[in-house]
Automatic annotation (TrEMBL):
The lineage of its organism: Archaea, Methanobacteriati, Methanobacteriota, Stenosarchaea group, Halobacteria. Keywords: Ammonia transport, Cytoplasm, Membrane, Phosphoprotein, Transmembrane, Transmembrane helix, Transport. PANTHER family: AMMONIUM TRANSPORTER. InterPro entries: Ammonium/urea_transptr, Ammonium_transpt_CS, N-reg_PII, N-reg_PII-like_a/b, N-reg_PII/ATP_PRibTrfase_C, N-reg_PII_CS, NH4_transpt_AmtB-like_dom. Belongs to the ammonia transporter channel (TC 1.A.11.2) family. Belongs to the P(II) protein family. This is Ammonium transporter. GO terms for molecular function: ammonium channel activity; enzyme regulator activity. Residues 22-424 form the Ammonium transporter AmtB-like domain. The chain crosses the membrane at residues 20-38, 59-80, 100-120, 127-150, 170-191, 212-229, 249-278, 285-302, 308-326, 338-360, 372-397. It comes from the Archaea. It is a multi-pass membrane protein. Its main location: membrane.
Length: 566
């Protein structure tokens, strides 16, 4: 008979420890990859002039936050959780740092949620300062209260002594996401809305983000990483029994966690899309994406206990509440939550956490009333602490005039004012010249017949999708050189209605391309004809072509002037 694994000389405890450590690290790396999702999701929902700022905040959230959580936050969490004060750097066993890293990626997830709520107007120093405090104190207190061995919200803490049951949050539906969403809402309230977000009569203006593609890509990356969040929290794969045998530990029910996570994700997208359709008659893409995330947030506190049908309920409700709560925050609270972090993370996390005893699988909950009371108490304590701490920190920055950028900087965009960069330089406006005018790039064009010895500039405002055909026509006409700028404007083309997160807005400035072609030895009319041939569709909005005289030209490399320079 062949020997079994346990009949060899290998210590079962070594196998269990090795597999468990490897699994926790894999889950940790998945959760870290969620930061790429947050970066894309948030960058897509802000204006193009604020993209670099949003990406920088995501980078610094991780960099500053994880260092602070290592030096300070983890120890604070241990004190609040009843484990005593112990600095992470003083760990006796190097593998203890695996557990710290797993906790750190949860902490940084809570921190980065806030950046989406305050996008477009928060000073970088204020946001980084808040990230420091969140990683050092705010989140560690919440994690210690709910996940410590004897934290106030655990069965062995104050809550257990008073109510008879502890607060249940398996993977951070409230401790991480609910806390992050509430913090983001509070910070956005303290900062105030972006300029032009609300009219004098209180009505809201829609400010669309610059890339729906980025937002959806970020959503899917987050959904992928979420399996590390939920399934990864079943951190103990194997355990060694008293008889010395290997047995499944938390992985004994890991299939339930994976199933409920997946079903809630799907139902969140369906619920949000359905409500958006009922409200506007259209299935809003961004609501579907945000709803998918809301479904994930809703199940995150309870994937280990929820019945399969409960995942449908939790996901559907979490997604359906999203458009309703966002509208309430925007229209009634007048809080400018740019990336909808509260309805996605805050309210969805609260709802999923509170519904724990009502959707639990048979035999999980002894007393629905007792369990529900514990959930209410936990949500209330975390909410009060998060609101108070966040308001104090951002309020302090606001009191000394360091919370948000100036009006001029907000108009220009935070990419330039905070970082000195332009995320999309090739699509930007012409550079400002020292004399207050604008520099115009003049490109040489070759071939053609004389143009009466004069220089002319042909300028065309056309549809962006016709650029390729126009370039081909110009090349065939012997004038391949041109300057292209992305612009927006209005003329005879009628205004259109657009939607951003289910809200309608008027699009009266249409995206166009401006083509400039300076010619000397080719007739301007030939260039006009070539552009018209490539640009015409026969519909309003095809654009216009202008021909203007040019006083002079100088070629920088050779110093030639006049027609010779062109």
């Amino acid at each position: 008979m062949e020997p079994t694994l346990l009949q060899t000389d290998v210590d079962p405890q070594v196998i269990a420890d090795g597999v468990n450590l490897l699994w926790v690290l894999v889950a940790t790396f998945l959760i870290f990859f969620m930061h790429a999702g947050f970066a894309m999701l948030e960058a897509g929902q802000v204006r193009s002039k604020n993209v670099a700022n949003q990406l920088t905040k995501n980078l610094l959230t991780w960099s500053v936050g994880v260092a602070v959580f290592f030096l300070i936050g983890a120890a604070i969490s241990g004190v609040v959780g009843g484990d005593g004060f112990s600095l992470t750097l003083a760990a006796e066993n190097p593998n203890e740092w695996v557990d710290w890293l797993f906790g750190a990626v949860f902490a940084m997830t809570a921190a980065t949620i806030v950046s989406g709520a305050v996008a477009g107007r928060a000073k970088l120093r204020a946001y980084v300062g808040y990230t420091f405090v969140l990683a050092a104190v705010i989140y560690p207190v919440v994690a210690g209260m709910g996940w410590g061995t004897a934290g106030p919200l655990t069965a062995d803490g104050v809550l257990g002594a008073v109510i008879g049951a502890g607060f249940h949050d398996f993977a951070g539906g409230m401790i991480v996401h609910g806390m992050g969403g509430i913090a983001g809402l509070t910070a956005a309230w303290v900062l105030g809305p972006r300029m032009d977000r609300y009219n004098d009569d209180g009505s809201a203006n829609v400010i669309p983000g610059h890339s729906l593609t980025f937002a959806v890509l970020g959503t899917l990356i987050l959904a992928f990483g979420w399996y590390g969040f939920n399934v990864g929290t079943a951190a103990t794969v194997f355990e060694v029994t008293d008889s010395g045998d290997l047995a499944l530990a938390s992985f004994a029910t890991v299939g339930r966690v994976a199933l409920t996570t997946t079903l809630a994700m799907a139902c969140g997208a369906i619920g949000a899309g359905l409500v958006a359709w009922l409200k506007t008659g259209k299935v809003d893409t961004l609501y579907v994406a945000n709803g998918l995330l809301a479904g994930l947030v809703g199940i995150t506190a309870i994937p280990d206990t929820t019945a399969w049908w409960g995942a449908f309920v939790i996901g559907g409700i979490a997604g359906a509440q999203l458009p309703i709560v966002f509208e309430f925050v925007e229209d009634y609270l007048k809080i400018d939550d740019v990336c909808a972090v509260f309805p996605v993370h805050g309210s969805a996390g609260i709802i999923g956490t509170l519904l724990f005893p009502f959707v639990a699988a048979p035999g999980v909950v002894d007393s629905v009333g007792t369990a529900f009371a514990a959930q209410i108490a936990g949500v209330a304590v975390i909410t009060v602490w998060t609101v108070a701490a966040t308001a104090i920190v951002f309020g302090a920055f606001k009191a000394v005039g360091q919370a948000r950028v100036s009006e001029e900087h907000e108009r220009d965009g935070l990419d330039v004012s905070e970082h000195g960069v332009d995320t999309y330089p090739e699509f930007g406006q012409p550079d400002v010249a020292t004399d207050g005018g604008h520099t115009e790039e003049i490109i040489r064009s070759d071939g053609g017949d004389p143009n009466d010895g004069r220089i002319k500039m042909v300028t065309a405002i056309v549809r962006p999708d016709r650029l390729g055909a126009i370039k081909q026509s110009l090349a065939e006409a012997g004038a391949p050189s041109l300057t292209v700028t992305n612009v927006s404007g209005r003329g005879s083309q009628p205004a259109k209605k657009g939607q951003w997160r289910g809200e309608e807005y008027t699009v009266d400035l249409h995206q166009k391309v401006k083509i400039e072609c300076v010619v000397a030895d080719i007739p301007a009319q030939e260039v006009v004809d070539a552009i018209r041939e490539g640009a015409e569709t026969g519909e309003p909005g095809d654009g216009k072509i202008f021909v203007m005289p040019v006083e002079g030209a100088t070629q920088i490399r050779t110093g030639k002037t006049g027609p010779d320079a062109v």
